Amino acid sequence: MGNQQACTACRIIRKEISAYVIDEDAHIIVFLSLENHPLVAPKTHIPDIFALDEATGALIMQAAIRVANAVRAGLQCEGVYLTQANGAAAGQDLFHYHLHIYPRWHDDKLTAYWNTAQADHELRRVTAERIRAHLVTGAGVVPPQAASGR
Fold first, then answer.
1. Residues paired with 90 in a beta bridge
2. What 3-state class would DSSP assign to 31?
3. 144: buried, middle or exposed (CB in 10 Å: 19+, 13-18, 0-12)?
4. Residue 110 DSSP one-character state
5. Tell me, what DSSP letter sits at residue 117?
6. Would you say residue 55 has pLDDT above 70?
7. Which backbone phi and psi does 82 adopt, to 5 degrees?
8. pLDDT > 60? residue 54
9. Which pLDDT score is estimated for 113?
10. How many CB atoms lie within 10 A of CB 111?
């Protein structure tokens, strides 16, 4: 089986395995990680940033901006942390380009919310619904002073 056939992200895109899909269009899919934060990925199998073309990169960032606003509004977090790894030496373990969007709070000390081994299905379902609601309604853009508390 080729890399694309075995790729977990590609299998989610092909609907061979279930996932909490928050948003998708013809080019990009956004779904929750097992740790309960959104991942933005191209629907085309691109293993890492070194194989990423500029047009797809732009689409990923456009989606990331929308999702980050929806995360802030839906989860009432105080900020977001974006991260992306390339190559095993950098900690990449899913070899399909993806951008992590972590919700952050002033007092989280990089632990709570996403840093559990794996979030249970109910927490992931609720998280997906809260984020998705702000993408669907267009209410994802919230002034910073309005996004407070958990």
1. none
2. strand
3. exposed
4. T
5. S
6. yes
7. -100, 140
8. yes
9. 45
10. 9
